[in-house]
Amino acid sequence: MYYNFKNLLFKDGFTEPNGKSVYYNLYSALKNAIMSKEIPDNFKLPPSRVLANDLNLSRSTVIKAYELLVLEHLIVSRQGSGYYTNKLQDNLDHREGIRLQKKSPKVYPKISKLGKSFIQHSEFNVGETYLEPVCFRPGLPPLDLFPTTVWQKLTNEYWKHVKYSDLSYSDSLGMEPLRTNIAKYLKIYRNITCDPDQIVITTGSLHSLYLISTALLNANDPVILENPTYKKAYNLFKSLKANVQTAGLSDDDFDISSLNEIAAKLLYVIPSNQYPSGKRMSLHRRSELLDFATKKNILIVEDDYDHEFSNWDNPISSIFSLDINDSVVYLGTFNKLLHPSLRLGYMIIPKFLISPITAISKQTFRFVPPSLQNVMAEFISHDYLNKHLRKVIKTSNQRKQVFINHFETLFKDEISLEVNNTGLHVIAILKDEVKDFEFCNYLLKNNIITFPLSSYYVSENYRRNGLVMGYCSVNKTWIKRNLDKMHTLYFQYLSENT
Question: SS3 letters for 240-304?
Answer without folding.
Answer: CCCEEEEECCCCCCCCHHHHCCCCCCEEEECCCCCCCCCCCCCHHHHHHHHHHHHHHCCEEEEEC
